[in-house]
Design a protein that fits this description.
This protein is α/β, with parallel strands linked by helices. The chain has eight helices and 15 strands. The strands form two sheets. An eight-stranded mixed beta sheet has the order 1-15-2-3-4-5-6-7. A seven-stranded mixed beta sheet has the order 8-9-10-11-12-13-14. Keywords: cAMP, Hydrolase, Signal.
């Protein structure tokens, strides 16, 4: 009943015309401090050719590294285009940004590439769009490339406020999106749930702490809304953060998850969806911090701690920058 086709790590894959499912390219895998490799994913439904960005910590550098790894080897730049592969992807194939919250490690790539970017929407909860216009695109930190905010508006980016928990179409793609608030050390972050025209779903979580530590029910609400899609085997995958190892005390989590807390949260999803319902669910781990310390890497430790306690049978993935994951329909 809950048999799933597991995601595969690919350099490039060609699909049949009507194949559904999702491709996820990791433009940035780290939750800090490595500039050039900060949280950013490109997501595409196999029902159309265009991508959206899920957070935008690293954009151009992520495109360069991903292109070198062969992530876009099946994409040809039209001969009439004056752009390189990286330029063509940024300007023509990425149709919008989904920003979970305005922390610098989630938006730096978008800001830095903005002078040469094409016009596109920034989709976010209204408080996050307010943060972008007040703190970055304000002619002080950076020119105002937005269509709202301080001073002259260059209007390259259209701030598109998403209402909470309501489906909205994503222009230029076959996707619809539902934004749900998350609690991030008391501040606001966002989960974006994507749905394609076949009803296949993909969920991306921005930074979030566990409900028990945040004293919130934000994650519970997201799990509730996803549970029916788990039951129907329509949830094809999720991206969620694990920033710290289990040894990190709760008071030092600052709105992030550990392996233990992620598994606790996934147990809530299982309890809402039915025993055994998460078996084979593809869970992509993001936001592991780059470490300056010698010894075992945080990634190795987090991977081990997740796998050792993985009684739910979920399928964890730890993509590096430039890696592509394909999620079968
Ligand atoms: Zn953050």
């Amino acid at each position: 009943m809950f048999r799933r086709k597991l995601a595969v790590l690919v350099g490039c894959l060609s699909f049949g015309v009507n194949a559904a499912g999702y491709d996820l390219v990791t433009l940035g895998s780290k939750g800090g401090i490595q500039d050039g490799n900060l949280t950013a994913f490109m997501l595409k439904s196999d029902q159309d050719d265009n991508y959206v960005m899920l957070d935008a910590g690293s954009v151009v550098n992520g495109l360069i590294v991903s292109d070198e790894k062969g992530a876009f080897s099946d994409i040809k730049v039209p001969e009439t285009s004056p752009y390189t592969k990286v330029g063509y992807l940024l300007k023509e194939r990425i149709k919008g940004y989904f920003i979970s919250h305005a922390h610098l490690d989630h938006v730096a790539g978008m800001i830095i590439s903005s002078p040469d970017d094409s016009n596109k929407p920034i989709y976010a909860l209204s408080a996050t769009n307010d943060d972008l216009q007040n703190n970055y695109f304000n002619w002080s930190a950076w020119p105002n490339f937005g269509n709202e905010g301080k001073g002259f508006k260059l209007s390259k980016y259209t701030y598109t406020d998403l209402p909470e928990a309501q489906w909205q179409p994503v222009a230029g793609t076959s996707l619809n999106v539902k934004a749900m608030p998350l609690s991030h050390s008391g501040g606001l972050s966002t989960a974006f749930v994507m749905k394609d025209t076949d009803g296949d779903m993909f969920a991306y979580f921005g930074d979030t702490g566990p409900d028990a530590v945040e004293k919130s029910d934000a994650l519970k609400k997201v799990w509730s809304s996803l549970s029916e899609h788990v039951k129907n085997d329509k949830l094809k995958g999720i991206v969620i953060e694990v920033s710290f190892r289990n040894e990190t005390p709760d008071k030092q989590l600052f709105g992030h998850l550990t392996p233990k807390w992620l598994l606790e949260e996934l147990k809530t999803l299982e309890s809402l969806s039915g025993k055994g319902s998460l078996k084979g669910l593809d869970v992509v781990i993001s936001h592991i911090k780059y470490s300056l310390k010698k010894g075992e890497s945080p990634e190795t430790i987090i991977k081990r701690q997740l796998e050792e306690a993985n009684t739910l049978g979920v399928n964890f993935h730890f993509p590096q920058q430039g890696d592509t994951l394909s999620f079968a329909p």
